[in-house]
Write a structure and sequence with these properties.
Bact_Solute-Bind_Prot2, transport, 330 residues, 12 strands, sugar transport, elongated, alpha/beta, Rossmann fold, 2 domains, six-stranded parallel beta sheet
């Protein structure tokens, strides 16, 4: 299918306005980078690092927010109209995979997914689209191992320590992260009987606070707590709930995931809180490295690996400044 005929068909079908459809293709390499929540810091950082790759290697980056299926279609139409040769996408719903894969096949654009892997009609990952994501289980294992190591350093008896698992099990990533964390703690000697789940309705600090408070209150006889969750906001909410029950910061070890602004705000406080650490994820690898991989695929024909999983780095009050500065360098 030619670019002219596809654009004409898309416009006739009521797609986005496709200006420049009859223009000549430019000589430079153009790559799209679509994200589902452009207002979130993680995706802002991905774009920032992708733009750094574009400046360094001399290609054009087209960054577009695509918060729902209609906007994904509009964004893809826009990329095609602007003569992009490939795109990277974190879709608002992985089940959009067949439509996105079909678009790439029809137009000849190369496609990669990042963060959330696209799935087919059978619910399985689409193997034909290279993916860069996070190993949720390994990330969780880092959090659990960090908590176990700090509890050991503080001399906490395993038999007198509770583990608060603030859960959001309807989200696969959340289940996998907490599974990895619990496995790491059990490998360190903590029994299943020490683990208490607190299901949350939302994945923010308020939702975690509401979930954690009744569980902690019901087990007032436990004086020392390890608090885990799928992200930093969840763990901070659990820590605030424990502190609200007059638990001392020294008796709480909260380990979050993300290295977000919420985590940094707690780690930067003049006096230590119960939020001990976070697993810093790398938007640099998900932004810079994916953009570079697409550039090399378009320019040199070097197809990226089918699946690349990134890990993380534990940051604490003592290390977060240096590690964040290193991560920010691009």
């Amino acid at each position: 299918m030619t670019r002219r005929s596809w654009l004409t068909g898309a416009a006739a079908a009521g797609g986005a306005s496709l200006l420049g459809a009859c223009a000549s293709a430019p000589g430079d390499i153009r790559i799209g980078f679509l994200v589902k929540q452009p207002q979130e810091q993680w995706f802002q950082d991905e774009w920032r690092f992708a733009r750094a790759a574009a400046r360094r290697h001399g290609f054009s980056l087209i960054a577009i927010g695509a918060e729902d299926g209609d906007r994904v279609l509009s964004a893809l139409n826009t990329l095609y109209a602007r003569f992009a040769q490939g795109f990277i996408i974190c879709a608002p719903d992985p089940r959009l995979g067949p439509a996105i894969a079909g678009f790439a096949a029809d137009t000849g654009l190369k496609a990669m997914s990042v963060d959330d892997r696209l799935t087919g009609a059978d619910g399985l990952p689409i193997a034909g689209i290279p993916h860069v994501g996070i190993s949720a289980r390994k990330i969780g294992a880092l959090a659990g191992a960090a908590a176990a190591a700090e509890a050991k350093r503080r001399g906490w008896p395993i038999g007198e320590t509770g583990i608060l698992r603030i859960s959001f099990d309807s989200l696969e990533t959340g289940r996998e992260r907490l599974l990895g964390a619990v496995e790491a703690l059990q490998a360190a000697g903590y029994p299943a009987s020490a683990i208490f789940s607190a299901p949350q309705r939302t994945t923010d600090t308020e939702g975690a606070f509401s979930a954690a408070s009744p569980v902690l209150t019901a087990r007032a006889g436990i004086d020392r707590w390890i608090i885990l969750g799928l992200n930093d906001e969840t763990v901070v909410g659990g820590v605030r709930a424990a502190e609200g029950l007059s638990m001392a910061a020294a008796n709480i070890i909260g380990v979050g995931i993300g290295g977000s602004e919420v985590a940094i705000a707690d780690l930067a406080k003049p006096r230590p809180t119960g939020f001990y650490a976070s697993v810093l994820l790398s938007p640099r690898r998900h932004g810079y490295d994916t953009a570079l991989a697409m550039y090399e695929w378009v320019g040199d024909g070097r197809r990226p690996p089918p699946l690349t999983l990134t890990s993380g780095t534990v940051i604490t009050r003592d290390t977060y400044r240096d590690l964040l500065a290193r991560e920010a360098a691009a």
